[in-house]
Design brief:
Blueprint: H1 10-15, H2 20-30, H3 36-45, H4 48-51, H5 56-59, E1 69-71, E2 78-83, E3 86-94, H6 96-101, H7 103-119, E4 124-134, H8 142-160, E5 164-171, E6 180-190, E7 205-210, H9 220-223, H10 244-258, E8 263-268, H11 273-285, E9 288-292, H12 305-310, E10 316-321, H13 326-335, E11 339-347, E12 351-356, E13 359-365, H14 366-371, H15 400-408, H16 417-420, E14 431-433, E15 440-443, E16 451-457, H17 460-465, H18 467-484, E17 488-497, H19 504-524, E18 528-534, E19 538-539, E20 542-543, E21 547-556, E22 573-577, H20 588-594, H21 606-621, E23 627-630, H22 635-647, E24 651-653, H23 663-668, E25 675-679, H24 681-694, E26 698-704, E27 708-711, E28 715-718, H25 719-735
Parallel strand pairs: 4-5, 9-12, 17-18, 24-27
Antiparallel strand pairs: 1-2, 2-3, 3-6, 4-6, 7-10, 7-11, 8-10, 9-11, 12-13, 14-15, 15-16, 16-21, 17-21, 19-20, 22-25, 22-26, 23-25, 24-26, 27-28
Length: 738
């Protein structure tokens, strides 16, 4: 049903994801019944994916400003000033539903789409990051989904020549029917040459560039705004098909044109395709836009206006150019063998007018289409935080080091080498810290040794048990990850993955996480500059764990001073920075050793986070720290084991005398605001004295050395044995049944 004269019925309205009340608003705006093309445009522009109608009122609570923020939320990506005339441009977006339906193309086009968001702003992408959540490892679909998603991410990023440098992979039964694929790109641009999307200049030409338009991806935004049912796999036609080689040409052509003064405005054709790009550009500029759809390059015959406007075919851009620059721009795109078509012009009517075969297929007022988009104050029920668990009530393992071996080989703590070795993480030659550490470190060209540190993180089980505390912890952990390599954290992007917002308990999770995130961002001076909301991540009424993924970016003035997690040499002192109370609620230890996923997550002391982090960063940059690692999942002993495995070097460890908690709570509790650092014997006293002056608690744990990890009075395990368990999970999982 895609003709301009189609009769609008209640079923057609429902198929387009609009409620009866929303359709009445359409009638008020239009003053008449819409054409089917106009209905399709309202449908995608008012979808949850494009309009944020359930989340907008709460997103306003997030701090978005700082002296170094050039552009906050509201553009294709966020922009921060990183000094020396340079800007970092970054954003994270989801491609969850498409990746479950068709994992390779879903993940690949997620990577392609986020890279376009960044280079649309004038930046050359320098790094990709991803955050992946899959169902239980033994779920029948998990191996298929992992294989497709990882291949799709690697295939697209590798072909584009952009390194994938960091990320996370986790497993939980809540994702069995709805995986999460969140992709982040960081780019670099001159701080005084950022490109925006607001159209300007009545009469200026509207230019379509890039790949041709096909029927793939139609209703992709609408599909991403609904929960899954048993027939969701029949939605493969709504998944876009990517071509990274075309995108590479598009990137180079756009950057070449951006070096001139030809561009007035530019917008990626992402979700909702030509519809969202044309509407958003004209809306931001307060202008009308008229398009002749017969001039749109298409790769399929007999495409209707409806199909052309709603297609989400990849590798396309919409530009407003200065008329006198048309020939120059056309020559650039033809050189790169890309389509370049003048498909319309800007007007002073304030309307979106679409013509096809000489007939008007749509004539819609742009301002109310955007400004009267529904905004819902969804009812919500705050999540009642779970109760604290007394660590003394949790049984001790018969062997602490055997428990450690179990933990480092578990699904959530095992090595991700099998994953990241499929990504080119070294291309461009600027990756100084590759995947596997706290944060990636990417050297900036022509910047006298300066580098960006990049990470992503979230602990969904914390968010489920206490959304506010979990939201704050997600922000704080990325801040710690950046700090642990010596970077000054500057800003975040977020990807808010939740279930059905029409369920008050789900909306309560969302609101709680936002409140916790906002509190942490303010305390850490760490604003949100971009992001994405992905709701309706449910299957047959069963939602995912609340998963507010945080992507963090920081800067290091001298990358040579950045810290690694690997133990460097024997005879160095191992220090714990931060206070330990032995918090075991929601810990990996409690889940993996005792089968219990319960209790309150660890408390978040944001003042301690700031104080401890600022101290350890100062010590790293002063050259006083030889290795550093933050403590998070698995607790203190897992962090030390990861340092030992990374350096192929063991250690001898002693618990403090007169321990006020059970030993397993000390070693495996997940207290926050903590770092493990190593220093030379000669620097230890100075480190301890400076920590005391700064009011930062530090505990001496032992020293590095030998080929084993030894717990005094609790036995020894070889680093090689730990490493074997740590490295086995993914190869064993992915080869099962082959």
């Amino acid at each position: 049903m895609t003709t301009a004269t189609a009769k609008i019925t209640p079923n057609i309205i429902a198929d387009h994801g609009l409620t009866g009340e929303e359709y009445q608003l359409v009638l008020e705006i239009m003053g008449r019944e819409p054409t089917i093309t106009e209905l399709g445009i309202f449908s995608v522009m008012w979808s949850e994916h494009c309009s944020y109608k359930s989340s907008r009122v709460h997103l306003k609570k997030l701090p978005t400003k700082a002296p170094w923020v050039i552009q906050g939320p509201g553009e294709n990506a966020g922009v921060i000033d990183i000094g020396d005339g340079q800007a970092a441009i970054f954003k994270m977006e989801s491609h969850n539903h498409p990746s479950f339906i068709e994992p390779y193309q879903g993940a690949a086009t997620g990577v392609g789409g986020i890279m376009r968001d960044v280079f649309t702003m004038g930046a050359r992408p320098i790094a990709n990051v991803n955050a992946l959540r899959f169902g239980e490892p033994d779920d029948p679909k998990t191996r298929h989904l992992i294989a497709g998603v990882v291949a799709g991410i690697g295939g697209y990023g590798n072909c584009m020549g952009v390194p994938t440098v960091a990320g996370e992979v986790n497993f939980h039964a809540s994702y069995n029917g709805n995986i999460l694929v969140n992709a982040m790109t960081v780019g670099l641009a001159p701080a005084d040459k950022i490109f925006y999307s607001a159209a300007a200049g009545v009469g200026n030409p509207v230019i379509y560039v890039g790949a041709k338009t096909g029927r793939d991806g139609i209703h992709g935004a609408t599909m991403a705004s609904a929960e899954f049912t048993e027939d969701s796999e029949e939605k493969r036609p709504t998944v876009q098909v990517g071509d990274p080689f075309t995108e590479k040409l598009l990137l180079e052509a756009c950057l070449e044109l951006m070096a001139t003064d030809a561009i007035v405005a530019i917008q990626d054709m992402g979700a909702a395709g030509l519809t969202s790009s044309s509407v958003e550009m004209s809306s931001k500029g307060g202008l009308g836009i008229e398009l002749d759809l017969d001039k749109v390059p298409v790769r399929e015959t007999h495409m209707t206006a409806y199909e052309i406007m709603l297609s989400e075919s990849q590798e396309r851009m919409l530009m407003i150019l200065k008329p006198e620059a048309m020939d120059k721009a056309r020559a650039i795109f033809e050189k790169w063998e890309l389509d370049f078509a003048e498909i319309g012009r800007l007007t002073d009517t304030g309307h979106l007018v679409l013509k096809k075969n000489g007939k008007v297929e749509a004539d819609m007022p742009v301002a109310p289409l955007v400004e009267k988009s529904p905004v819902y104050q969804r009812p919500y029920v705050p999540t009642k935080p779970q109760e604290d668990i007394d660590p003394a009530s949790v049984p001790a393992p018969s062997d602490l080091l055997a428990a450690l071996r179990t933990l480092v080989g578990s699904a959530d703590l095992s090595s991700r080498r099998w994953v990241w070795e499929q990504y080119d993480h070294l291309i461009m030659g600027n990756t100084m810290q590759r995947p596997g550490g706290d944060a990636a470190v990417v050297r900036l060209p022509d910047a006298n040794g300066k580098a960006l540190a990049i990470t992503s993180d979230c602990t969904p089980r914390y968010c489920f048990a206490d959304p506010k505390r979990g939201g704050a912890q997600a922000v704080a952990e990325t801040w710690r990850n950046l700090t642990a390599v010596g970077a000054t954290p500057l800003a975040i992007t977020d990807n808010m993955n939740f279930g059905n917002p029409q369920r008050p308990e789900i909306m309560g999770q969302f609101v709680g996480c936002i409140e916790g995130m906002a509190e942490a961002c303010r305390a850490l001076d760490y604003p949100v500059i971009s992001g994405n909301v992905s709701l309706y991540n449910e299957t047959n009424g069963k939602g995912i764990l609340p998963t507010p993924v945080i992507g963090g970016v920081g800067v290091i003035a001298d990358a040579a001073k950045s810290a690694l997690i690997a133990f460097r040499q024997p005879g160095e002192v191992i220090l714990l920075v931060g206070e330990t109370t032995g918090h075991v609620g929601q810990s990996i230890y409690l889940r993996e050793l005792h089968g219990r996923e319960e209790g309150a997550p660890p408390p978040i002391d944001l003042a301690a986070e700031k104080r401890n982090g600022d101290f350890i960063r100062t010590q790293i940059l002063a050259g006083n720290v030889t290795a550093c690692h933050d403590c998070s999942d698995g607790g203190l002993l897992v962090a030390i084991a990861e340092m030992a495995m990374a350096g192929d070097l063991g250690a001898t460890l002693r618990a403090p005398e007169k321990l006020s908690m059970p030993a397993h709570a000390f070693w495996f509790g997940e207290d926050q605001a903590r770092y493990v650092a190593t220093v030379t014997m000669g620097d230890a006293d100075r480190f301890l004295n400076e920590a005391k002056k700064a009011g930062v608690p530090v505990t001496v744990l032992g020293e590095t050395g030998s080929a084993s990890l030894t717990l005094v009075d609790n036995g020894t395990i070889s680093v090689a044995d730990l490493k074997g368990a740590h490295e086995a999970f993914f190869p064993d999982l992915m080869s099962a049944g082959s």
